[in-house]
Amino acid sequence: MSHVVAERTNALNKGAGPLSYIRRGGALVSLLPLIPFLAFIGYFLAFPLAFIVRDSFLDNDKHFTLHNFALCFQGVYGHSFLVSVRLSVISAFIGAVAGAFIAHSIMRTGQRTRRAVAATSSVLANTGGVPLAFMFIASFGAQGLVTKLLKFLGWDLYGGSFTLFSAAGVTFVYCFFQIPLMVLIFSPALENMKPEWREASDSLGGTPFTYFRRIAIPVLFPAFLSTSLLLFANAFSAYATARAMTSGTLPLMPLLIGNLVDGNVIANEKHLGHALAVCMIGVSVIVMTIYALVLRYSKVKK
């Protein structure tokens, strides 16, 4: 009799029997609130993505082909890809370095200042598109207020090769939302730096450079690298700001894809546009995979 009771107890512990069904039912019930979210993601992300991937392998006659992907890295398309990567890398680097220094300076202030900066950064990091382009054109354009003020002070902003509508100008505009995003995401990593670590380094005779090299960099580097990758993906996929500023004249991948898909500039090449979009998705997936691996490594190390 005791042997039978032991077997039933073991079966229940392993998940067999009525108790396991009750547990599974409770788990399914707990997933019900996620159904609207999953439906939203499926309809607006997974469903269009599946059609984009499918159409990227078709020609205008609906026949399977790999010719679209062969063109992605040739001629103007390959040049647009390189320009997009270069612009994203530069803006991510500037945003990461400047944002890290700003976040470090804010950590020395009080809680009210930190909250105010965090609230401001959250607003600026989500500012983009046509309003952001109009703001910079009105301020730093050829007839902008800041441009006229600098010219009155003796510095002609447009006296050299700089223009707000070039790659350098778009990079400058991108830094407006890249730096606040870095401040917003990197600040929690700085808050986790314990004062005891600095005190232990000082008590053992370590210099500020020793603390920075042996403690701060190893601890903060994973967060810095992962946030930099996020900034790269953010700039690489930006569309509305560059489109509003340059009217599609700057060779960027998102702008080129828009011209191919809507057919206003280049007709009957929407399948090539879908192939370019799949290439961009592939780059973003690689970057975000590295981002996730870096975060996982930093958590395991801690």
From TrEMBL:
Listed InterPro entries: MetI-like, MetI-like_sf
Q: Got a GO cellular component term for this one? A: plasma membrane
Q: Which CDD domains match?
A: TM_PBP2
Q: Pfam families from the xrefs?
A: BPD_transp_1
Q: How does it sit in the membrane?
A: Multi-pass membrane protein
Q: Which UniProt keywords apply?
A: Cell membrane, Membrane, Transmembrane, Transmembrane helix, Transport
Primary location recorded for the protein, binned into one broad class: membrane
Residues annotated as transmembrane: 28-53, 83-104, 116-142, 162-186, 219-242, 272-294
Q: Taking every annotated instance into account, which residue ranges of this chain make up the domain ABC transmembrane type-1?
A: 81-291
The family classification in the record reads:
Belongs to the binding-protein-dependent transport system permease family. CysTW subfamily.
Q: Tell me the PANTHER family matching this sequence.
A: INNER MEMBRANE ABC TRANSPORTER PERMEASE PROTEIN YDCU-RELATED, INNER MEMBRANE ABC TRANSPORTER PERMEASE PROTEIN YDCU-RELATED-RELATED
Report the protein name in the record.
Unannotated protein
